[in-house]
Amino acid sequence: QHVVLYPLVAKSLRNIAAGKDPLEGQRHCCSMAQLHEHYSLGYPDLDELQKNPQPLIFDIEVLKVEAPGSYQQDPWAMTDEEKLQAVPRIHKEGNELFQQGKVQEAAAKYYDAIACLKNLQMKEQPGSPDWIELDQKITPLLLNYCQCKLQCEEYYEVLDHCSSILNKYEDNVKAYFKRGKAHAAVWNVAEAHADFAKVLALDPSLRPVVSKELRSLEARLREKDAEDKIRFKGIFSQ
Length: 238
What we know:
- 65% of the residues lie in helices and 0% in strands.
- It contains ten helices and no strands.
- It has helices at residues 6-17, 31-37, 44-51, 80-99, 103-121, 129-151, 155-168, 173-185, 189-202, 207-231.
- Helix 1 (6-17) packs antiparallel against helix 3 (44-51) and helix 8 packs antiparallel against helix 9 (189-202).
- The relative contact order is 0.05.
């Protein structure tokens, strides 16, 4: 039975199939306002269906049949107990993908594991023992996720997540190190030096690794200065 809002749903599904935001082109308002807001949905067949509602028939195609026990539920479909039990497995799968060089896929696994724990954490009182225990399980997963994002050059996401960790755990060396690398990548030189200094203060044994990062940063700065001199050469003498 056709309902007047279906064309908007269909547009969202088509956006998803095309890899776009399902809410692309929509603004935050009620569904009826959405109908009046858009004179066209961008698809002639949906525009026609909106003008002339009619009963709809859906054909469902089976793409594959999975053996019992092989289907993996999405986190949103799990019970609380299933979420807790799934986290170690998802974490392990993420590690295996990362070792295989499949960084984007690994990040997705870490994200799913974090989502499971975050969902459970929302049901606890912030700062309570159970909340803290869940948060301590989230932190290493979030650091793994940040490592993936570093390799994908998504530096500002790394800055946000590492800062959120350090707001709670001021002695987390890995968070300082990853944030320092992200700062260096986006030319926040002073911030990068501060984070690397904190790493050395917390764990002096990491000096060789930190020194390597600082040498890389200095080399990039020299290269950038040389490029800037060429780019702006003679600009003030014209």
